Amino acid sequence: MTRARSHWILPLSLLAALLLGLLPLPEALQPLRPYWLALVLGYWVIEDPERVGLGAAFAVGLIGDLAFGTLLGEQALRLVVLAFILQRFRARLRFFPLWQQALAIGALLLNDRIVGAAVHLAVGEPRLPWSHWVSPLVGMLLWPLVYLALDALRLGHWRRR
After folding, report:
1. Per-residue pLDDT averaged across 135-158, rounded?
2. Phi, psi (rounded to 5 degrees) for 125
3. pLDDT given at position 7
């Protein structure tokens, strides 16, 4: 697949991540919802850093703030922090086996929860229950599937031969 024909995959994957984040879940499953925007944006920061960087993370975060009704700038800050760390360690992370990448992404998602908790604390919002700290584990377990699916789409392996 040529580079020109694959330009639709980036915005479509980010839109799909946004929609997955908006998908209604039963109250018992809400704490298990992975941070889809972070997973998809993380993939693009690792695999296509020329197109996706801190500016894209900020823009996607603002769109996420508006869509989810969170404090304006909260997700933007969280995604910029995530993208910055990924950019810093991208050269190493790209060559990790997938299970090691999943561990690193899990650590980044846990860091994201800490940044979110700090923002909530700074503005005086109530703390999230402990069950919301399980979400990074779910994201870590989903990382190999997200990575392989987006890689197949980006490289064109999904097409019939």
Report:
1. 91
2. -80, 155
3. 80
Structural domain containing residue 126: 9-155
Please indicate, yes or no, if residue 3 is contained in any of the structural domains: no
Contact status, residue 56 vs residue 41, Cβ threshold 8 Å: yes
Determine the length of the chain: 161
pLDDT for 1 equals: 45
Between helix 36-47 and helix 135-155 the angle, nearest 10°, is 40
Predicted structure pTM score: 0.91
In a domain, 74, yes or no: yes
Q: Classify 88 as helix, strand or coil.
A: helix
Q: Is residue 31 part of a domain?
A: yes
What is the CA angle 62-90-92, rounded to 5? 155
Q: Which of 108, 118, 48, 100 is nearest to 80 (CA)?
A: 108
User: Please, are residues 147 and 100 in contact by the beta-carbon 8 Å criterion?
Assistant: no
CATH code (residue 37): 1.10.1760
> What is the distance between the alpha carbons of residues 42 and 53, in angstroms, rounded to a whole number?
10
pLDDT in tens, 52-89: 999 999 999 999 999 999 899 999 999 999 999 999 99
Angle at 113 between CA 131 and CA 79, to 5 degrees: 140
